[in-house]
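Margin note from the TA: students keep mixing up input and output lines. Inputs are the sequences; the output is the structure of the whole complex. Example:
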Amino acid sequence: MSRQLLEYHSVIGYRFIPGLKARVEHEAGGYLVRTNGAGFRCDREFLPARGPSRRALLFGDSYTAGDGVSNGKRYGDLLETMVPNLEVYNFGLSGSGTDQQYLAYREFARGIERDLVIIAVFVENIMRVNARYRFFRNENNEEVLYEKPYFSLGAEGLTLHGVPPERRPLREMDLPPDARSRIDAGGRFASLRLLARRLGIKDLAQRITRYNPVVEYNRPDDPRWLLMRALLAEWIREIGGPVLVVPVPLYQFIEGTSDPSCYQARFAELARDTGCHLHDPLPDLKAYPKEERRAFRFARDVHYTPAGHRALAASLAPAVQSILDAAGS
Amino acid sequence: MSTTILGISSFYHDSAAALVRDGEIVAAAQEERFSRKKHDPRFPRHAINYCLEEAFIEADELDAIVFYDNPLLTWDRVVKNCVMAGEPAFEQFEKAAASILGIKLWVQDYARRTLGCLGRSGRVLFTDHHFAHAASAFYPSPFREAAILTLDGVGEWDTTAIGRGDDDGIELAQVIEYPHSLGLLYSAFTYFCGFKVNSGEYKLMGLAPYGRPVYERIIRDNLIDLKDDGSFRLNMEYFGYLDSFRMTNERFDALFGGPPRQPESRITRREMDLAMSVQAVLEDAVLRLARHARRESGAPNLVMAGGVALNCVANGKLLREGIFDHIWIQPASGDAGGALGAALMAAHGYFGSPRRMSPGGRDTLKGSYLGPAYSSAEVRAFLERHGYPYERIEDPDGRARTVAQALADGKVTGFLSGRMEFGPRALGARSIIGDPRSETMQSTMNLKIKYRESFRPFAPSCLAENAAEYFDLDVESPYMLLVAPVREERCIPFDREAFYNNEDMLQIINQARSDLPAITHVDFSARVQTVHPDDHPDYYRLIRAFREITGFGVIINTSFNVRGEPIVCSPADAYRCFMRTEMDLLVLEDCLLWKSNQPAFAEAGDWRKDYELD
Amino acid sequence: MSSIDGGKARARVKKLFFRKLLPLSDMARRGAAYFPMGADPSAATYYVARNATRMSRGDFEAPVCADENEFGKKLAALWERSGNPELAKCAPEMAACAGLLYAPEEIDDEVSPFIYVMF
């Protein structure tokens, strides 16, 4: 029933419709969405030249775009209230992979003056980076398949494919068999997860099985991680200035259901090798009492609640301030 | 300090939500437009979502949530009704218990579940039903003081209320109580003539000019005792609504020569004459009520609301009678308007917000364009994503000229422009428009585009300043709530008596009745919308362009839907309706889509089954 | 718009109607009618003058019922005030029915975590 929020983009695949003011119905009541003239969910218009404020460009997926919460309640907006003299340009794009976020940087942010670029990698994004197709819902609440741009990693480095992506939805049955394995259906074991959820045992089942939602990080030489790593490394190189990488944890890690050590190790390696700043918010988030941690996500929707965003912002703010202060900006 | 109030009407018929900030109407919309279920009675969560979107506020910023009806008093009436009716009323009681005890009573819980909170007050407030109607009529009106007349089926106990509004607020002094109701009387005839209660009343009114008032005396002698002061009582021996789900009973059947007409069966002379007869009685009652209201209130102006106030034929008579200097009628007069009234009533009556008057002397309803708008960017995002071919004309005058020329060429056009209308009428924001000069346009648009009964007339939209060129009308009618005669010199006399004897409605429909045949009803009347440039500049511009091309500053305006479908809301709704019908052109803001350029529109199943016929 | 699904609630409503309300019908028919059923030739007018012609702040708040118990109490008070003690006695049973009948529409917000509404 809500408005159409996204529109086709010939490089990224899609972006928010520019100049939108919408309220999205949601289990917690609903949330307000405002987009700027560039088609990003940011209350600020993107200006190339920096003013007197310190400026951070923030990239990420729905956790950064703020699905489930109004603009002002997102961690990116809260950072502005916690770090003096800071303005945050939020480039978060719901449903996107890190590859599309990188393309968004290239398309919209390269020429924007900034003091810091924050790349918030929702750790599940590694699946999207390795996918060529994703399911979305159309206005009739039907699942439809769309092509996305993607990179491959070869001897010469990264190669971009699928640009421009097909505008219209595809049918899974029309894809060749090898392509079907490149559909991101939204996490591992999608149908099992749905069944467990309907039975009301999803959380319990994940706890008992020590479910690992992101096996792609298990080994440093996993080709899926290598692609993700190459992408981040190239992006960090291209930025040239201060970059802060933030692995945004899935709720299973925050609530202690799953072991985060593999993905933490991979991001540590990335930081060591690229020289970027790394802030892992998980220890801070896990320090909250159990009940509070559960309240970081909604009853059904796994996106962060306003409390989750507040906790993430509180963890992030000192790191951001420290980098900005060190850079003398 | 700013005060923001959300009004809600729901759980009976045509749920809606409205938002008022410091006395200013910010947004209002019916749930059916979003849910796509005609007259949707469910809790209006989509409409509420829209209202908060338009105001761009969080739910916890609401100072109050106000419901348009008092469930305690409604239950009181239901219980007493069923006690009076005895055992036969059990089924009715069972249904009412489910509806009121099981749902309506819990409106506060529904609100909390939908919004996640109850706003700053932490509870839902309530207004009396007729106070909500009265507030919806008085507060947006252009009058500092006015008599108030509300008329509907029933709200709590009241079916009719007379009062006064002024700087001190709203006062309702006299009422007529259930089961004596002009609304229910009219609905009884609607039912008896084979139309659906709560939506078919409009058809009965449209049918009336085909008939003669041959049953008027029988109605007066048997069904209603109408006093000179406009007060009345019905004779409940003839009605079924006390103890059954039928509006009428066997005695009623006997009075009018047999059982009710079966829905969708052929309309006979009896139904046409019944329609005219009850219309005549209704008009007489309304005039008497109005005279009484004038005497009691001493006010020179009248405001009206309630479902009966949508009877624009009666409204036109009332205007021409000159009982009041001016009248103003709430266009969302049915239950949906109760949401707006509840919010306004609380704004002024509970929070003491000062009343806002328009400095220009016009009303403050903003043309009733209180629903969602879709930007050009949103429209193009929709079209691009689906690959629908379109032509964008950004220049408003150029666009108006192109569309006007298409109309003049006989093209039927779907027109989505600006904020959606609140209330049952399309006023140029979600309209199907056409050339009124065509003799066959009425039947063509009814049968090929609206898929509805061929006898139903279309309404004209004209430039406010040119209305008198076409109609005997010397006031604005921005909400299509006044019926006025087409100017005599434009009319073409025909033999009505011959028609009265053969029942063939198509014969008369396709007969030229004026130089604007598609909008001239069989009694040479028209349900006029006057368009003011301040209310809807694009629509005004379009009619002006049509005038420049054809010399006629009038176009056909009918709601953008097919029979049984809620009026379209979004570009997606509009495109779907466009492709399902024989419309030629679709205007979505500044994008024009020609049917001939569109790809084949494939749908699973028969869409006609999605809509229950009204 | 609604019908009763639950067997328990249905039985309770039926009991309420047949055991509590129907016996009052005879009384109503014998002359203590709750409303007139037709014309009254002797009446000069059929208008009823409202006792309170304006809505007070209290009127906005009066119907608020947090639960069925509050509903029962308010209903009983309403009927005591309006001179209908025979109905006031039925109020607790009606409140009990209200508690049984309440079954809010489930809002289907099945959110697949990473499947987005796009177009």
